[in-house]
Amino acid sequence: MSNALDYLKGLSVLVLFQLLGEGLAQVLPIAVPGPVLGMILLFFVLRQIEPPDWLTKTAGRLIGLLSLFFIPAGVGVFFLPEPIQQQWPAILAAIVGGTLLSIALTGLVLKALTPDIADR
Amino acid sequence: MNLFNADLMELFIAASLLVLTLCAYFTGLWAFQKAQHFSLLHPLMSSCLLIAALLYSFDIDYTRYQQANSAFYWLLGPATIALAIPLNREFERIRALAQPLLMTLLFGAIAAPLCAVTLAYLFGAEPLTLLSLTPKSVTTPIALGIAKEIGALGELSAGVVIFTGVVGAIAGPKLLSLIGVKDERLQGFTLGINAHGVGTARAFDISPLCGAFSSLALGLTGVLTALTLPTLLLWLEKAF
Lengths: 120, 240
Hints:
By secondary structure, chain A is mostly helical. Chain A contains six helices and no strands. In chain A, 45% of the residues are buried. Classes of the chains: A mainly alpha, B mainly alpha.
């Protein structure tokens, strides 16, 4: 029971920061998404005060479930409008080829910039 | 009486669709563990395939499924906020590498959409599809915001984003080791730039340190892309 309460407290804090982030996003003149601003806000707060155990626990659990939260949007790729579906070779090339290529390129740049640690 | 029954039926279907997501997720996880983490069986990919197959065979609208599952989608928000905690924990180790990380970020945030758009163009994609591919390496909530901003097709962007993440999670760590990027901090950062939240979930499987670097890259790529991509596309549109 105390476990459930811990998660409830943790989730409340995270949602509070999300709301703060969304609010800040409305005020700022630039289009930064609310959740990212919320993450930055919480980060700055955590630089000042040590996070309580229940928050760390909730965060770990939510991060572990990330894949689950992506499922509803992922299913959508199989239900695209007809004209888009016909372009699946191009879409597949971008998803598979494009991603592998950009990972390799980014990795090589990072390796070149950190020659002393990359290969260990 | 009839009306009441219809409402009850609706509720029952919505609840079933929610449970379907959970069942597919745990089936996917179970299969992944049974197959000794055989990477092509990424739980996100297998569960999405399973759900799509079931929706097709029972002739259920995707929109209906999506509405029934909005709670999961909503939880992406708090989960993004939660990334601040590992980020804070590993901050000192991140700061030590700040300069190379930021330079790589600038490069990666441009390289990822550019690689995708170039390949898709060579394979004959139409302008709307190309546009919808540009936010592909950014985490879903941000990608959807960007898609709206630039007039792309949101459903396509969301799907492409997720499977980009799956490809990154499946092949990323091996590919990086192959080209000599073996350090888990660097692997995490590269995964976060190119494969956002799905790659970050994979990075946390490698180690909490790897996950923290991935979280950092995910957040920074999201912010940087959200700030620059709409303006960049506007310039390109004017130029051509």
